[in-house]
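Deliverable D5.2: sample structural annotation.
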Amino acid sequence: MTGAEPPLRREIEWLVSSSTFDVPGRHVPSGSSVSFAKPTRHAGAMQVRYAAERYLVPSVDGGGGDFLVDGSVYDVIEIGMDPDRHVWFRIENRDGTPALYDSRCFTLTGEELAPDWVAQLHANGSLTLGPRPFLASGFWERYFDRVPDAIEVYQRERRKDV
C-alpha cells in the first residue's frame, strides 16, 4: 500500500494488536462495548467492492458465490474478527439478506466507520464492530427468527444509512 495507512486499517490494527483491549484512560473488560472516540460519518459510511476473483473456492467460507455481484459496491453493516484474526463483513446480499462474507473477497471503497458504531470484545477473544443494537446478545438470532422487534431495529438502523 502506498501513502498513509487508511484510518479504518489503523483502527482495526490497533484493536487487534491490543491484547488487553485497553482504551486510553480505561480498561475494557471482555464482553463489554466501547464507542469509537473520533466520529467519522453517519451509519453505512464503510463500503466495499466485491471482487469475485478473490473468492478462493472452496477454501474460503463466506465467499460471495451466487449471492453477490462481481464489481458491485456494498454497505458494510457489521465487521467481525474471530480469535484467529479471520475478518468477515456482514453485508446485505442481492436478495436483501444480511449475511457474513469473508473480507478477503472485497476491496475497500469507503474506509470510514460510522460514528455510532461500537466495538465489542467477546469472552472467546472475537471482536465485533457495528451499531450497538446489532451487538445486543441474541439480536441476529431474533432477526432471522423474524421476531418483529428485531426486524424493526434492523430497519431503523438501516434507514440511518440513507
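Annotation notes: The chain has one domain: 7-131. The chain is about 20% helix and 30% strand.
The annotation will be released with the project's public dataset once the embargo ends.
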